[in-house]
Design a protein that fits this description.
The protein has 244 residues and is an alpha+beta fold. It has a domain at 171-228: OB fold (Dihydrolipoamide Acetyltransferase, E2P) (Beta Barrel). It has helices at 12-51, 100-105, 130-169, 212-215, 236-239, and strands at 52-68, 74-85, 91-98, 111-117, 124-125, 172-187, 190-198, 204-206, 210-211, 223-228, 233-235. Strands 6, 7, 8, 9, 10 and 11 form a six-stranded antiparallel sheet that branches. Helix 1 (12-51) runs antiparallel to helix 3 (130-169).
């Protein structure tokens, strides 16, 4: 989270992040990961279509792996230990992750059809076409994520531009802090607050969100400086002072 700044004008890229640009960065990172993952999945799908070889694999064992993330959410991964032979006579035993439904439908001792790559016989598909399906699913999710990225980029960029214009050209006004407004947002179990004020025209304005400690020097009744923009005003502590 940002801290109030009065030393010098905040550059555009910092304003962009302060105005919610972190969301677009997160969407972009996810989009990049999905794009790479989809490309890899489609690459393997093409290889399975050209050099995939069918065989029967025996289920030697079954295992469920459990992991818990920092939020306490538990994830289960389902594995089958498979033994199969290639057309060159190579015997392979490997663990392969499968879907939950496939895991419970399969018993130890069963023989299941699989595809393996002739050039990489340890690379298999337990469900023919699964790489193609995974690539298509990632493309669809990537499309949605891309739209969210564009929306977040436009929203944060527009706010950052409005803040810079207000700082450069807007009327500079001194107002009184009405209250430290407690938001519903918490970060690391610490609630975030905004300064709330009312300008000479009677319009209510709010600062960006900060930890409460950062705003304690500006209690109700304290005078602060704002810049009037076309649609809203911006606190000098959010955007920095006007360049001289």
């Amino acid at each position: 989270m940002p801290t109030p700044c009065f030393d010098k004008p905040v550059p555009f890229w910092k304003l962009y992040l302060r105005m919610g640009g972190w969301f677009s960065v997160a969407f972009f990172v996810v989009l990049a990961a999905l794009t790479i993952g989809s490309h890899i999945a489609h690459g393997f799908a093409e290889r399975f279509e050209t050099e995939g070889r069918r065989t029967q694999a025996e289920v030697l064992d079954k295992e469920i792996s459990e992991s818990t993330d920092s939020d306490g959410d538990t994830t289960y991964t389902y594995y089958l230990t498979l033994a199969y032979s290639t057309n060159t006579g190579e015997d392979i035993v490997k663990d392969s992750s499968v879907s939950k439904g496939f895991y419970w439908e399969t018993d130890i001792g069963d023989f299941i059809p699989i595809l393996y790559l002739e050039s990489q016989p340890r690379r298999i598909e337990t469900n023919e076409g699964s790489n193609r399906t995974a690539g298509q699913v990632m493309q669809i999710i990537g499309l949605v994520d891309g739209l969210l990225f564009l929306g977040a980029f436009w929203y944060s960029g527009r706010r950052a531009v409005a803040a810079i214009r207000a700082r450069r050209y807007g009327a500079r006004e001194s107002v009184t802090v009405a209250e430290l407004y407690a938001t519903s947002v918490t970060v690391n179990n610490r609630r975030r607050y905004r300064l709330k004020w009312r300008d000479a025209q009677g319009k209510v304005g709010y600062s960006l969100m900060y930890p409460k400690d950062a705003l304690l020097p500006y209690p109700p009744g304290h005078r602060i400086t704002i810049y009037q923009g076309i649609k809203k005003a911006f606190w000098e502590g959010d955007v920095g002072p006007r360049p001289e």
